[in-house]
Amino acid sequence: MNTTPSGAAREIGVGLISVGWMGKLHSRAYQVLPSVYPELGLKPRLVHAADTAEDRAAYARDVLGYEKASTDYRAVLDDPDVEVVSICAPNMLHHEIGIAAAKAGKPFWIEKPVGRGAEETAEVAAAARVAGVVTSIGYNYRHAPAVERARQLVAEGRLGRITNVRATFFSGYASEPKGALSWRFKRELAGHGALGDLMSHVVDLVSYVVAPIREVSALTSTVYTERPILPMGSGTHFAVIEDGEMAQVENDDYTAALVRFHGDAVGTLEASRTIVGPQCGIGFEIYGTDGSLTWNFERMNELRVALDRSGPHQGYTTVLGNGHMGDYASFQPGPGNSMGYDDLKVIEAKKFLAAVAGIEHHNSTIDDAHAVAEVISAAAASAESGAWEPVPDVAGATFGHQARS
């Protein structure tokens, strides 16, 4: 990290691997970080971006403002001016690039899932541990101020003993039967479908707010078994193709799981990418002996809380986002002013760079990603076996506050 005179912001050289939608979000997050968090004294410098598509690499340089652009990610990792790396490539490349970044000694912020299963994720985690590099994972929903407040209420015991949890991620991005057969629908490229793509966010949320999951019983189903072919790199999983050549969908559209947490709580988790209605319907309901709360991303700036079992104020109170919730005050002056998805990536960038700089350590880590991957792998095994499957513990995960059994 570059040193600067006292009182001046410290520059951190940033590298980006893959310049798609998520790479653009990471870039914008770095760019606005100094104005949102001036107290950190950090100034990201966009140094080097890489994408296999030459037009995207040029976009990174000419529009996003990176000083250099390449078509090989190794050039980013080899660049001495790059001090941290954002890895936003498709799932099948996360394992290779994550290990390469660790071996290059570069702290990295990587999108989920880190691997196509627990084994790949564990290998990336091991490489990061050996290298001693700071890591951060793209579990952006956990950074919503209402989610941070929910976690605080659970930790303080305001809900009493947590008894049961319901959580979902219902998304309609694949609800169109003629939606393109992108890489997300191919097992070799994506790994699991809704189970890996969407349920991983659900698992992270409930683990972060409540407690780690210790046992799971799951099922999966594929709603549309064929889709029209989309050439690699020519569009997104939102593309619709009329009268295209059809090919097999290789992973799941829907998944559901019964779970047992460490401690006494139990729960139900669901995820779907083909549902009609919800668009980004990730949320949870948490019930305790003294109260409950509920949150959904589609109403991200609201938390519904019930803390009166039998008095005059029974039922839910809707609490608007405010300065007592997470990082809300860094973005908005008061309740009623909404935050959005992109803001959560700014919070994620802040937590990542603050950890790199040794200021604070509130970032999600590769150990969290490994812990989530173990739950997903156990769920996949359960869907095959029909039996309850245990979830191995992962040391170092930054998950919930409920006592382990």
UniProtKB/TrEMBL annotation:
A Pfam family per the record: GFO_IDH_MocA
Keyword set for this entry? Oxidoreductase
Q: Which domain of life is it from?
A: Bacteria
**Single Gene Ontology MF annotation:** oxidoreductase activity
User: Which residue range or ranges hold the GFO/IDH/MocA-like oxidoreductase domain?
Assistant: 148-293
What positions does the domain Gfo/Idh/MocA-like oxidoreductase N-terminal occupy? 13-139
PANTHER family for the chain: BCDNA.GH03377
Q: What is this protein called?
A: Oxidoreductase
Organism of this sequence: Streptomyces aurantiacus
